[in-house]
Specification:
Strand content: 15-25%
Number of strands: 8
Number of helices: 10
Largest sheet: 8 strands, parallel
Distance between the termini: 19 Å
Order of helices and strands: EHHEHEHEHEHEHEHEHH
Helix content: 40-55%
Oligomer: single chain
Length: 261
C-alpha cells in the first residue's frame, strides 16, 4: 500500500538538522517503501528554486510554485516576484503541477491583510492565465478565502490542511475544488476536519503531511514526513467505513487526477 503526499516541504531546514541521513537519500527511501508521489511545495521565489532542485533528483517528486501569504512581508516588488514565479512554472524541466501555496493567513495581529490579498488575487489571475490549479493556505481567513474563490470561477484548486467547517467543504466540492487533510485529522480535538471528511464526496479528497509540520497522532511533536501518511489515511478510512487500502487508492487516484499526473 502506497500513499500520495499532496503537500510537503522537503527543503525545510528541519530535515537537514534532524535526519540521520541526507534528505535525498531519505526521500528515495520513502518513494521506494510506502510513498507513491510527493508534491514539494514552495513559499517564495527563493524556496521555489529549492523545491525545483530537489524534484529533479526524484522521479516521483513534483513541485508547486508560488508565494505563501506569510512570505509576502519579505517581498517589496510584487511584479518582479510574480514574473520569477511565472518563469519557473513555465519551465517544463521544473516539474510544476500547481501554483502554490498561496492564500491568506490572519493568525498574527500585525498581519498586513491588504498586502496578502493583493498577492492572492494576482496569483489567482496568474493561475487563470496559465491554466494551472492552485494550492491555497487558509488560516483563520475562511470568509475572505471563499470570497476570492467565488470571484475566480475559472480557477480550480485545493484547500490544503483543511480547517474550515463541513459546510465550507461541501461548497468547495460543489464548486469543483479539492480538500486535503493533514495529520490534524488524527488529533483528538479535530471535530471540524472529521465532520468535513464525513460529508465530502470521496472524489473531492486528498491527504498530505505538510511535513515537517503537523505530525499525526501518535507521532505528534516529532519530525513529520511522508511515511506518516499511514496514520492520516487510517483515520480517514475509518470515517468513511472502508479499508485503509481502499482509502489510499481513492486519495492517490484523486491526487493524480488533480495534478494531471
Amino acid at each position: 500500500m502506497k500513499y500520495f503526499d499532496s503537500h510537503a516541504h522537503y527543503y525545510d531546514e528541519r530535515f537537514s538538522e534532524e535526519l540521520t541521513m541526507g534528505v535525498d537519500e531519505f526521500v528515495d527511501t520513502l518513494l521506494t517503501e510506502n510513498v507513491s508521489y510527493i508534491i514539494n511545495v514552495s513559499a517564495s521565489p527563493e524556496t521555489a528554486r529549492l523545491v525545483v532542485a530537489q524534484a529533479k533528483k526524484h522521479k516521483n517528486m513534483y513541485t508547486a510554485i508560488g508565494i505563501h501569504p506569510s512570505d509576502t512581508r519579505f517581498i517589496d516588488d510584487m511584479d518582479a516576484a510574480l514574473e520569477e514565479i511565472k518563469a519557473l512554472i513555465l519551465d517544463k524541466e521544473n516539474k510544476c503541477v500547481c501554483l502554490g501555496e498561496i492564500g491568506l493567513d490572519y493568525h498574527y495581529p500585525d498581519t498586513d491583510k491588504e498586502k496578502q490579498m493583493r498577492y492572492f488575487e494576482a496569483q489567482m489571475n496568474l493561475a487563470a492565465e496559465l491554466n494551472i490549479p492552485v494550492c491555497i493556505h487558509d488560516r483563520e481567513s475562511h470568509a475572505d478565502v471563499m470570497d476570492v474563490i467565488r470571484r475566480h470561477p475559472e480557477v480550480k484548486g485545493v484547500l490544503h490542511s483543511f480547517s474550515g467547517s463541513a459546510e465550507m467543504a461541501e461548497e468547495l466540492a460543489r464548486l469543483g475544488w479539492m480538500i486535503s487533510f493533514s495529520g490534524t485529522l488524527t488529533f483528538t480535538n479535530a471535530r471540524k476536519p472529521k465532520e468535513a471528511a464525513a460529508r465530502l464526496p470521496r472524489e473531492s479528497v486528498m491527504i498530505e503531511t505538510d511535513c515537517p509540520y503537523l505530525a499525526p497522532h501518535p507521532k505528534r511533536g516529532t519530525l513529520n514526513h511522508s511515511g506518516n501518511l499511514e496514520y492520516t489515511n487510517a483515520v480517514l478510512a475509518a470515517i468513511w467505513g472502508i479499508t485503509p487500502e481502499e482509502c489510499a487508492e481513492i486519495t492517490e487516484n484523486n491526487a493524480k487526477r488533480f495534478f494531471r499526473l
